[in-house]
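hey so u asked for the seq, here:
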Amino acid sequence: MLTAQEKTYVLASAYIPEHSVDLISGISGGEPFLVDDCLVHWSRGELIINGYPLTGTFDLPRFESMVNELQRRFRPTRISYISPRNPMTLAVDCCETDSDDYFTLDLRDVSLPAPVKRNIRNASRRLSVGASASMDQAHQDLTDEFIARVHPGPRVIRLLERMPQYVNSRSGGGVLNAWDDRGRLNAFYVIDQAPTHFSTYVIGCY
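ran it, structure tokens below
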């Protein structure tokens, strides 16, 4: 369990979305704690290990040593991890892999191209956009429609299903909503604002 001081330290040092304590806790249901300057969650027999150290640089032998110690300590039935490099001690038994690309956008003094401005003007005639700190039945209905229409993978479905609990817990999450002139929710996008130095677009649907 993180102390309040440790949580403040993590959020102040965060540089990737997976450092956002309440976001990962909300998605995984896990209990967060720090090991060797790395954020770890423990959830119902699963270890969720963030191999990106909060300070310093990634060291593969040090990370493998930490993972081995955590395995001895918790004896998990499953390990999920994210790291800059793949430790062979875990890779040999890995049953599922995935990768993400992150794009950092500096929103200060943004200059929008003319076509984007035109699209915004056109959309503003039909939609009104606003922010909220909670999700309700309209978000659930749109989520259900999106899943039925798009058929996203299991990981995306799990993420969408856990967003209402995360956002409604008031732990740094918020929602950007687009409503049409008939009062129907056309789109929503969940944003995590807990880290000190950046906000993260988590997921959304339309």
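The two ends are 36 Å apart (CA to CA). The beta strands are 31-35, 38-43, 46-50, 78-82, 127-132, 173-180, 185-192, 200-205.
lmk if thats what u needed
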